[in-house]
Each structure stands twice: as structure tokens, then as C-alpha cells.
Amino acid sequence: MQSAANFGKKGKTACFPANIFRDDVFLDATLAKITMATETSWSEQELVKSPHLRLTRFTVPTRRALISPLRERLLSSIRDFNVAGTGRENHFCMALEEALNNAFYHGNLEISSELKEDGTSAFIDLAREREQLEPWRSRNVYVTELVGLFGLWISIEDDGRGFNVEAAFERCNDPELMLSSGRGLMLMRGFSDELFFNSRGNEVTLVLYPEDQEKNLPLQAESETGQLRRMVAG
Q1: CATH superfamily for domain 20-210
Q2: Which helix (H) or strand (E) covers residue 165, if one does?
Q3: Residue 89: CB partners within 8 Å, gap ≥ 6?
């Protein structure tokens, strides 16, 4: 079980490298690490774990207090696999924070960004109210984390109705029409290496590639040591 206290005090279909040794990857559901969700925690299911990659699935109740500790848990993957240095991690942190806020506030709690524009506490007050009421309180946020020597993929899906992604990005091109939601989209796009939305608009995937000049080369496991290295042509 991962509680808010545990990490509050700490700093689409997955594709795996084809040549990772089969014995390094554990797919048997009976070996998966599973923790169950409660009102103050999320469930965490470790589907794949090896020295080279980790695939984890989170189911998170719509409790705003879980956003910060969940963010810190996901950011720890960057350090676990040496994906990026402090500077890029801090930038990615802002993109991740925005994506999580969108899923909780706009997706599951269905609160419009326009409430932020009037300078009152209406946005937070409505969030606090809906967090305790149905149907909003029974919704979840689903996070899929895939991390390894090839980088970090984080997909965040909510139970909301989604939004028109194309129209939202079009508004970003007009400063007079761009609300805080548009600024958030620009922030996510600017501080992640790649950004994808599903067609419904209720799932976003953020990608952070490693700081490696040879990051575009395929991975291959060495037969003697089992360690992954980049394949170099010629």
C-alpha cells in the first residue's frame, strides 16, 4: 500500500526491447507486486520487473491529497534508471504535475479552468465539495509507468468525458482565447520529449528520453553478462 505520507516526505500498449533475456522479465501474475487502494492511498501493481525495465500500473482514487505523493513516486523512476539529470527532471516534474492536475480536477471532478480566472476560491471550493460526492468520488485515475534504459513513459487516464484535444491546441495559438488550461497544455508539450493524447482526450502519455547521444540506437543484451548496450552499426 502506498500512502500519501510515504512519498510526501521524499524528495498504450508497452513495447519492450526485443533482445532482453526472457529470464530477466517476470510476467507471471502470481509474482506481481500488488498493493490495494484505500481512501488515502493508491493501488500499485508491478507487472514487469527486471534490471533493465519496470512496468507498473496504478489505480488512484480521486483524492487531491494524493497528487503530490503520486508525482514524487513517478519522478523517482527517473533516478532509479538514471534517465535524466536534475535539470530535466525538474522540467518534466512541471509537465507531470500539470497532467495529474488535469486528470483529477478537469477529468474526474469536471471543474472548468474558467473558475481559475475570476481570482476567487471557487475552483478549490468546488473541488473540495465534489471530492466527497457521487459520482465524482468513485472515479479513479489510472497511471501506467514504463521505465528503463530507453527512457520513461507515463500514461495517465481518468474516468471523465475527455475533451477535444485538437481544438484545445488551436486555442493555444490565440493569446486572447488561451485560458489556464491552454497554458497547461503548452507546458506539458514544452517540458516532455513527446506528448500523446488518445482520441477521446481522457488519456495522455508523457515521454522522457535518456540523456544519451546514442538513444536512437536499438538495445541488445550481451550474451555473456546479460547487460544491455546500444547496438552500433558497422
Answers
A1: Histidine kinase-like ATPase, C-terminal domain (3.30.565.10)
A2: helix 165-172
A3: 75, 78, 79
